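Example 9 (inverse folding). The structure is encoded as follows.
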């Protein structure tokens, strides 16, 4: 998302947010029991270190304290950079994600298969495009609250399209394995139930959804990039486009984030060992 040298601070913020996402996703998706996730979610809602006293297992304390320290660190860091408004934005994004993960946990416990429409309301958040916008706070282009509000507030076509691309592509490549090990219904299962379709039919429809979302994202980028358009800094909007590009690379064939050694390990190594000649 941020390959340019001047965005080193944004890159560091991005790494921190990605660590938080990975830890929360694994905790809510694979490791925590429902009772543990209920206590953990309540503690996050309180946002108080004393809430850790109710945790029955030490791993829960590690998860809570890690997320708590990261976001309290954000607040201090952003205030020092002259962006005091940023602390609430950042915390709101991670709390949205936590609540959405908890919603999935409740659905799974109840063996509830939501409608596709209901699923997507929640899944657009678990698709993590919104929380990753926290890293935009590391850009010099966002020194005031207005540009940041513009890119995270709904309805924003660019973010909405990126959410769809991320969520739908992930569901297509990962849903079969997730269902085999026990997982909340993905968008594929929800759509199959709603419209009485086969998996193959739904995948075709989902691929068309991704294609349409890409058209919307490209259109938004081109329109907002016209000379004289000061609605949103082009450099900021480009991060959303870059995020969609990363998602496309990770989830085009398999779940490349989960199975990084199979898909992207070689690309990362070649970036450092086989530089492009200039």
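The amino acid assigned to each position is listed next.
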């Amino acid at each position: 998302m941020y390959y340019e040298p001047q965005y080193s601070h944004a890159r560091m913020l991005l790494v921190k947010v990605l660590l938080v996402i990975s830890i929360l996703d694994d905790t809510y998706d694979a490791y925590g029991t429902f009772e543990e996730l209920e206590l953990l979610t309540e503690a996050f809602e309180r946002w108080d270190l004393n809430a850790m006293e109710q945790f029955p297992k030490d791993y829960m304390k590690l998860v809570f304290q890690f997320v708590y320290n990261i976001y309290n660190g954000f607040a201090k860091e952003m205030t020092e950079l002259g962006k005091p408004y940023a602390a609430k934005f950042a915390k709101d994004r991670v709390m949205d994600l936590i609540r959405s993960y908890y919603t999935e946990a409740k659905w799974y416990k109840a063996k509830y298969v939501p409608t596709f429409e209901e699923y997507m309301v929640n899944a657009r958040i678990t698709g993590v495009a919104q929380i990753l916008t926290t890293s935009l706070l590391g850009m010099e282009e966002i020194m005031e609250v207005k540009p940041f509000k513009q890119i995270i507030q709904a309805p924003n076509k660019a973010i909405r399209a990126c959410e769809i691309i991320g969520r739908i592509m992930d569901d297509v490549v990962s849903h079969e394995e997730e269902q085999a090990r026990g997982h909340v219904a993905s968008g594929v299962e929800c759509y199959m139930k709603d419209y009485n379709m086969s998996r193959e039919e739904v995948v075709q429809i989902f691929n068309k959804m991704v294609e349409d979302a890409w058209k919307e994202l490209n259109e938004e980028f081109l329109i907002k990039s016209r000379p004289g358009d000061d609605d949103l800094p082009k450099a900021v909007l480009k991060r959303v486009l870059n995020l969609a590009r990363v998602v496309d690379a990770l989830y085009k064939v398999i779940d490349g984030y989960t199975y990084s050694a199979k898909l992207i390990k070689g690309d990362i190594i070649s970036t450092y060992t086989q530089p492009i000649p200039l």
